[in-house]
């Protein structure tokens, strides 16, 4: 019955209040499409945990500033309205992307490809964690960079994909993130040090990312460290491919050394060294082999 539902709703609110600070926010009471105007008749006020809300969520006292403006992106029923969803009255959807960037923040576009793009499943509005994979003294290492970063765009798309979105519009080779100026500088410096790795978050997850680095030995909790260290150790004699054994000596004594060469023919310097070694052998043997 409706009474039972109301009682359960009130009990749920009471439980939420005991755990989180609730704040009133503006949400649409129906699904809205990009290009529709924001109108009071389509909106409701709901109390939601402040911990899980975006900093740019529209609260009731701000609603008049956005009433009548066009939506830049589609908004699902019950989704908190964000300031970045709206444009000035009379503006076209997608015009002036800079208006979706909050004050004191920056929009930074970074290239992504393959697995770093989470298989092409990222969409604007998603939140990601960013890691840096680089090389250290003991091999590859995965370092935490930034956590809970909001995506403003994937490729040139700033709204969610719809049934009419074709495959070329869904694919992308870059993403644009919303970050503070100092965070933008960190990302750019990180790109010079190695490969950026992004991990997709659950929409309601606002927890802090782990700040622990991951090394090869951490993958197996310290086990197989001897095997991993041997695998990571280069063999200087064989580093560039095949080796040519040069024998030097006289009167039966030999001194062998391996000189690394490429997978192709020996270099000119190596051929000269081999010819010189052969001459010394012939001299030591009294004029060459009989």
Give me a quick take on this structure:
The chain is an alpha+beta fold. Helices cover 22% and strands 24% of the residues. It starts with a helix and ends in a 6-residue tail after the last helix.
Report on this model:
22% of the residues lie in helices and 24% in strands. It is an alpha+beta fold and 290 residues long. It has three domains: 2-94, Type Iii Antifreeze Protein Isoform Hplc 12; 101-220, no CATH class; 243-284, no CATH class. The strands form three sheets. Strands 3-6-5-4-7 form a five-stranded antiparallel β-sheet. Strand 8 (243-248) and strand 9 form a beta hairpin. The radius of gyration is 32 Å and the shape is elongated.
The largest sheet has its strands arranged as 3-6-5-4-7
Summarize model confidence as the mean pLDDT. 75
Low-confidence runs: 89-95, 162-169, 232-263
Number of domains: 3
Q: Which value, in Å, is the CA radius of gyration?
A: 32 Å
Helix content: 10-25%
Q: Looking at the structure, what is the overall shape?
A: elongated
Secondary-structure map:
Blueprint: H1 2-19, E1 22-28, E2 43-49, H2 63-66, E3 106-111, E4 127-136, E5 139-154, H3 167-170, E6 174-179, H4 181-193, E7 195-200, H5 225-232, E8 243-248, E9 255-260, H6 268-284
Antiparallel strand pairs: 1-2, 3-6, 4-5, 4-7, 5-6, 8-9
